[in-house]
């Protein structure tokens, strides 16, 4: 009887020891929570999403979410924490949206590498010396961008991304950066005059204030200095809200005609009908032409005024003035576009003397507008008392007007 062949040994299936990417991220977030409640509070408002998209960089953000790629999972844990915190700070400081605004104003010569370098240097500098993460040696720092004399005069806490970008661009600096900012498409404006990104600015301002009030966050967030100040609600959004409130058509009660609910017998008392105001409103845009207002500042402010004027179908009255009124032009909503309004304004500028705010405001008092926007450096002679219409001073510095609403325009 032939001997039986023994059965072949069964090879056990290999045991998979790879930890799911989501679990790795979850553990990293737990470690951040233990070390910084403030940073954890900011991370709760974002999504950390593993991406299968091929990439040479560990992480990137579009201003809403953080995307981590395959190189991220090969890094040591302290470095992984660095990239998560770094990307979340880009979102909290609204860097993708602010980069979008710079690109929109400087389309022809926008430098994405310098904008990213400015953003990265500010964030990376705030994380130096933190024991619960590790800053990679190759990332951009202030010392890679500015010389010792410049940093001695203006330390990192004095810089915001816009001011740093402006200096780097003026020097035509060449830098190698990880392009970790995904700039969103140009926003579409809603009927309320705000984009979704602009509405989120106010939300993130409150979230940053909350994060800074929590223990364990001050060392990181307070190092940001001027950057946290700039990340607050943008000047143009504040301006838009005031203009929208003053120029929007209001609903009035009409007591000469009963409401349909009264005539239909739905209610047994007299309810007046409602009707929209028929008066066309007007915004006055006054520019100080004594020499402090540049072409770019004029374009930025005029663009915001015209956007609300278009939505509310209001007229606009453009005045240039220094020590006296030099130009006074009125335009309807249909004709007031940025190119022709700006061209008409520039062609008629005749200023260049000292600054006196009284002549322009006295002229407007004869036919008061719904609201007046005065673009100036706020250095000049003010009327002793406010006029009989609201005035918004859009200032190029932190100098406040003695009355009215002063909004400081961010520098680019």
Structural key phrases:
single chain, about 400 residues, alpha/beta, Rossmann fold, 3-stranded mixed beta sheet, 16 helices, globular
Short overview:
The chain has 2 domains: 18-233, no CATH class; 281-408, von Willebrand factor, type A domain (Rossmann fold), CATH 3.40.50.410.
Order of helices and strands: HHEEEHHHHHHHHHHEHEEHEEHHEEE
Shape: globular
* Classification by helices and strands: alpha/beta
Provide the spatial order of strands within the biggest beta sheet: 8-7-6-9-10-11
Approximate strand percentage: 5-15%
Give start-end ranges of low-pLDDT stretches: 188-193
How many domains, in number, for the residues? 2
Mean pLDDT across all amino acids? 83
Please give the largest β-sheet: 6 strands, mixed
How far the N terminus sits from the C terminus, by CA atoms, comes to: 96 Å
**Secondary structure tally, helices:** 16
- Percentage of helical residues? 40-55%
What is the C-alpha radius of gyration, as a whole number of Å?
A: 28 Å
**Count of beta strands:** 11
């Amino acid at each position: 009887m032939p001997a039986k062949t023994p059965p072949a040994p069964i090879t056990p299936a290999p045991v998979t020891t790879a930890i799911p990417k989501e679990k790795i991220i979850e553990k990293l977030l737990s470690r951040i929570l233990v070390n910084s409640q403030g940073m954890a509070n900011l991370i709760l408002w974002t999504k950390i999403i593993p991406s299968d998209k091929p990439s040479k960089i560990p992480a990137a953000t579009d201003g809403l979410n953080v995307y981590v790629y395959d190189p991220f999972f090969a890094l040591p844990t302290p470095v992984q924490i660095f990239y998560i915190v770094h990307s979340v700070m880009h979102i909290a400081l609204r860097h993708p949206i602010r980069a979008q605004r710079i690109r929109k104003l400087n389309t022809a010569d926008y430098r994405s590498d310098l904008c990213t370098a400015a953003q990265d240097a500010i964030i990376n500098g705030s994380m130096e010396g933190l024991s619960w993460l590790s800053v990679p040696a190759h990332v951009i720092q202030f010392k890679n961008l500015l010389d010792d004399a410049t940093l001695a005069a203006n330390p990192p806490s004095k810089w915001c991304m816009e001011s740093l970008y402006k200096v780097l661009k003026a020097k035509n600096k060449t830098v190698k950066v990880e392009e970790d900012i995904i700039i969103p498409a140009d926003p579409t404006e809603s009927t309320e005059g705000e984009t979704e990104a602009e509405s989120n600015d106010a939300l993130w301002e409150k979230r940053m204030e909350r994060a800074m009030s929590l223990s364990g966050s001050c060392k990181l967030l307070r190092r940001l200095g001027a950057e946290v100040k700039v990340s607050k609600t943008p000047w143009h959004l504040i301006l838009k809200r005031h203009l929208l409130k003053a120029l929007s058509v209001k609903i009035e009660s009409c007591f000469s005609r009963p409401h349909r609910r009264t005539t239909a017998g739905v209610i047994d008392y007299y309810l007046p009908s409602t009707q929209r105001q028929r008066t066309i409103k007007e915004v006055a845009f006054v520019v100080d032409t004594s020499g402090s207002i540049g072409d770019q500042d004029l374009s930025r402010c005029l663009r915001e005024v015209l956007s609300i004027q278009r939505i509310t179908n209001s007229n606009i009255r453009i005045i240039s003035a220094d020590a006296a009124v030099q130009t006074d032009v009125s335009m309807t909503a249909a004709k007031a576009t940025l190119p022709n309004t700006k061209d008409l304004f520039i062609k008629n500028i005749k200023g260049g003397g000292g600054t006196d705010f009284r002549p322009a405001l006295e002229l407007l008092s004869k036919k008061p507008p719904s609201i007046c926007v005065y673009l100036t450096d706020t250095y000049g002679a003010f009327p002793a008392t406010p006029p009989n219409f609201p005035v918004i001073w859009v200032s190029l510095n932190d100098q406040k007007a003695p009355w009215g609403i002063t909004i400081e325009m961010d520098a680019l």
